[in-house]
Amino acid sequence: MEDSYVLQMKNRKFSDFYLCFCGYAKCSPLHSFGPAVRPNYILHYIMEGKGKFLVNGEEYNLQKGQGFLIEPEVQTFYQADEEVPWTYLWIGFGGKKAEDYLRDLGLNKKQLIFQCGCGEELKQIVYSMLKHRKYTAANEYFLEGLLYTFFGTLKENMEIAGNAGEKDGNLYVRKAVEFIQNNYADPVRVKDIADYVGVNRSYLYTLFQDNLQLSPKEYLTNFRLTRAAELLQLTDLSVETVAMSCGYQDALGFSKIFKAKMGITPSAYRKENTAWQETKRKEEIDLTF
After folding, report:
1. Parts of the chain with a pLDDT under 70
2. Residue 29, phi-psi category: left (phi > 0), alpha (psi -120 to 50), beta (remainder)
3. pLDDT in tens, 266-288
4. I need a surface site. Which of 119, 148, 160, 257 has the fewest CB within 10 A?
């Protein structure tokens, strides 16, 4: 291997997510590493050339713009191509949140390969890491920030290929559902949900249909109306306040949507479901004795 630049971290201030090492190297023909087992997660990204990556009996032939994940305690082998050997960068990392953050990227034990068109950005991040190789408390904070920047850059630009479509799709749907549950009271749109998840609207629609048999809009509407029904039944909030609490700025529009879904108006629904009124009446009677 030639033109190799490596940073090895010996001290560690953080525990949830931390950098262990990083580097950048131009490999000689057929240069290889392994078979070996590593104690940390490692992400490699190929800047130029080609090579192969072997893990769990599978062989992946990779090239510029692609990357691969090495998991802790998993035996792997990788080798540069004989004619067009690869140049790659890598970061090693660990921490209690590392697996969760990789899952956010769509990477896991069944999905180890990715593609990304942001090689120069990743290279500059690693170069910045290498510039902070001297141990100081300040540099530890700089490196921690750069590690998150590396992941943010990947998340914004990477694509997952291969056999993880269903897993990746489930991840996107889960993130979308979490967003809806946390933001249904705001005037969010399907575009807002898609932007948060990081996919376009048409792909989000397909994922919801495949996984939930509903469109994102239908799921959002159902969630809002279910919450509205609870508020109508269990509180004495006005219909207008219930509408606002569930993301509807127009009470009349809310009433029309509610009736179309439930078959009756919000006021009529409240009259038929008076659990809160009965409870309140009993409490008032008890107070008189």
Report:
1. 1-12, 161-169, 274-289
2. beta
3. 999 998 876 445 544 454 445 44
4. 148
